[in-house]
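Appendix B. Raw example, untouched.
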Amino acid sequence: MSLKRSADWRDRAASELMSGVLGRAGIHGDVLVMLESRQEVARAVTEAGGQARFWHRLARDGRRASAWIPAGPFAAATLRLPKAKDELDMAVHAAASVLEVGAPLWVYGANDEGAGSAGRVIEPLMGPARTVESGGRCRVLEAVRQVDGPSPRGTLDEWRRSTSLEFPGGPREWISYPGTFARGRLDAGTRALLEAVRTFPLAGRRVLDFACGSGVIGAFLSALEPTVRVDLLDVDAVALAAASENVSGACLIPSDGFDALVSERYDLIISNPPYHEGKSQTGRVVERLVRGAPDYLVTGGSLMLVTQRRFPVAALMKSTFKTVEVSLDAGPHRVWCGKK
């Protein structure tokens, strides 16, 4: 089974299981559908007598993404299990803040994504979480909004984290939120990339920080060379909310890959791209980045990215760019540079 198909079966099986629960529920009123990319759940809400309203955190497939949920109240909510426990915790609090008393929250996903242990995150706020359906290596958990339950943390600002990062010129405050990559810390790959880019001529250049997360790379470049013009691109609206605080004056682009770009051209596209979607490893983002970058580079412009040494990117780079070099070989990571 390919990595892409492996991810697909989880999404399909989980959404079909959740749809079955909705079909028996007979919901009336607005239902908050959270983090679901497929159509089955929304269709099941409609067929059950409800009205689906969505929260998409990721700007994929033409969906409008936002950093926080729509205003309630809601008669029920469904939540596709996020990849990280802190992200799940935030999403459960968000749902509880807009659910009517007595309204159900259904959390669903694959067992190997952590669905079996999700109750430990749900129960401190929502009370008992019971499995109401299982099958296809997935399950659906149900919890009910209690009249006397704890008060939820119902705004994005209540999940704001402040740490300190070292930049050219000294340490500075760094903002992150649950689910953002590295959670405000510098991972080894980003460190290698930042070391390699120090030798790149940045004065007056236009740079795209691709898959920017909370904006570490863009902020570093701005600190290194104040005249650089940085655009920040990411699929995650919550990550861009953090980046907007961390990189003053940068242009924010919510986009899945280059989809939102039209006529923009850059001297440098720089990235520490993700290799995972949920639990599955995938080369989708890296391949789209490398193959798409030349269309958004000026003549003589460069793509610089960091990957793990074991990740097979050499042939892809050499088939796309005229000149390719390893800018830095740092233990498990390599920084690649391709010139248009």
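End of appendix B.
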